[in-house]
Structures are given as structure tokens and as C-alpha cells.
Amino acid sequence: MSINLLTAQSIITEALATGQQHGFKPLTVVVLDSGGHTIAAAREDGASNNRFEIAHGKAYGALALGVGSRALMERAEQQAYFIAAATAALGGRLIPVPGGVLVRTGGGTIAGAVGVSGDSSDNDETAAKKAIEAAGLTAQVA
To answer: Is the pTM here over 0.85, yes or no?
Structure first.
């Protein structure tokens, strides 16, 4: 099962609302299905340029390697050569910092990934995680 458009849109709405409630800087949110295809994306007014590419890279990298981008950051700190090689293999579409969260169904199947960019990486991750959980799905950050 992959994330559908309606679920993707609800995740985006909730992620942006979380950012606004917590006073985060303007966010960009990208939702990918289990095949890595963009289902929906939104950029808040005032978000800096290229936030889509960063949010997409957080989500795409998490999906490609099967772990949240927080785990990718930890791996980059220990195995920089591996992350550099994986980034090259993925055509540069891997951003190894928090904010890329895998989406799992109740049965544990990967349904897609959410990437958020615009504030600190930890805050980006918080917005993604809360939005995924509000949609009744499971967020995997590590």
C-alpha cells in the first residue's frame, strides 16, 4: 500500500499547521509514495528557494535506504564514504539530516516518506512525525 493523494494532502496540512503552532520558519513539505514518486508538495509563503529539493532529498534518501534521515545522519557521521557514495548513486537525491521520515502502515509496510525543510532539522522532523501520526500512520525517524 502506498500513500494516496488524500492522505498526502492531510499530511501536508498537518505538518504546516504544526509549524505554525510552534512558530517554525516557513516550511516546505514533500510526500512520496512507496516507489519514491512525489504525491503532493507544498511550500509556505516565505519559504526560501530550493526547500523543495532539500525536503525531497530528505524523504527520497530515507525511502531509498529504508531508514529515517536521522539514522542517515548518524551513519554519515560514522561512515561518510558510504553516504557520499549512496548520494552519488542516487543522483544527489539524499540529504542525510533529520526531516525525512518513513511512513509505515499499521502492519509495518512502508507506504512512503515525508520530507520537511525550512526550520532546524529537528523541527522539520517534528512537523513530519506529528503529521504522519495525525493521519493514523506510523512515523519512522531512525
So the answer is: yes
Contact 44, 119 (CB under 8 A): no
Q: 64-75 in b/e burial notation, b at 16+ Cβ within 10 A?
A: bbebbbbbbbeb
DSSP string, 34-67: TTS-EEEEEE-TTPPTTHHHHHHHHHHHHHHHTS
pLDDT, residue 106, reads: 87
36 within 8 A of 66, measured Cβ to Cβ: no
* DSSP character string of 94-125: ---SS-EEEEE-TTS-EEEEEEEESS-HHHHH
Least Cα distance to 60 among 89, 81, 90, 83 occurs for 90
Q: Which residue has the cell 513530519?
A: 128
Q: Which stretches in the chain have pLDDT values below 70? A: none
Predicted pLDDT at 1 = 77
Please state which of the four CATH numbers 3.40.309.10, 3.30.470.20, 3.30.450.150, 3.30.160.20 is assigned to the domain occupying 5-140: 3.30.450.150
Judge whether 5 and 108 are in contact, CB under 8 Å. no
